[in-house]
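Support request, priority: normal
Reporter: lab tech (M.K.)
Component: structure prediction queue

Hi team, I submitted a job for TAXI family TRAP transporter solute-binding subunit from Brevibacillus invocatus yesterday, and the status page still shows it as pending. I've pasted the exact input below so you can check whether something in the sequence is tripping the parser. The sequence length should be 333 residues. Please let me know if I need to resubmit or if it's stuck on your end.
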Amino acid sequence: MKKRSLLLSLTLLLTVSLVTACGGGGNAGGGNTGGGSAGGSNDPSQLVIATGGTGGTYYPLGGGMADHITKNAGVTATAQSTGASAENVRLLRDKQADIAFIQNDIAEYAVNGTAMFEQDGKIDAFQALGALYDETIQIVVSADSNINSVADLKGKRVSVGAPGSGTEMNAQQILEAYGLKFEDTQLQRLSFADSAKAIQDGQLDAAFQTAGTPTAAITELAATKGVKIIPIDADKIDAIIAKYPFYVKTVIPGNTYQTVPDEIATVSVKSMLVIRTDLSEDLVYKVTKAIFENTDKLGHAKAKEIKLENALAGVSVPVHPGAKKYFDEKGVK
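Reply from support: The job had stalled in the queue. We restarted it manually and it finished. Here are the results:
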């Protein structure tokens, strides 16, 4: 009897050991996590960077960052096209992505469980990796359009970005300043690239796009059909900022797009990178270093605006300890 009990105990011990061994080493977006430790033995073997639509700025920048993380951080990284900010938060929460581009206003909504996150509740699955550049709200129409003001959007076919995106919230807040609601337009929710194609084909009158300038989809549309960028009136800019202080006044320089020779007054939010809270300090340190020491090699014009000294500007959510370690070494505050 004692022999049978001993044999059973040894069998159970061996089974547990095998299961434990097979369970180690996560993979992209869904593996075991490092729990914030410095060792990082259970960090994912591949990092997924959630970006945005292929016609925006996030996707090509994310591709450049993935290359340098792969080369310099000892882990493979890939960029994934997504519906941008709000979707990216949920992908991090669900461990379907590890790093994400996000607007600073959307980060605020997520950590507080407000706006599009009211049903989700507060989301604490991410921390800041660093601020990047201004993201400009651009209201795009064809060059021959009779739309010249936000007020003219009433009754028109208007795209406000992908469902649940930061662009959608920006559009709602800007329309609100003019006394308009989504219901006052023929609303569509299209990605950057799809919005540009719909304007090109005469199936859409206007599109909101929140992205770094120049935005690829708008540049391409300007080169084919020609575009106008609709300005926001000065008093409306002041009203928007008074109610939503995460906005800043912005001027799009003349000739940013070939059919827009004049400066355009509008507003911007701040883009930033966030990363899963449960990734190890060591891994996040290496990722942060790989990104911020290679900004001149990311292959996109907007990368010129990513400055190490501004990496914490406009960041109101907690910074991951691994990123903080790197910024502390560099004297960034």
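The mean pLDDT is 88. The chain has two domains: 46-133+271-330, 135-269. Let us know if anything else looks off. Ticket resolved.
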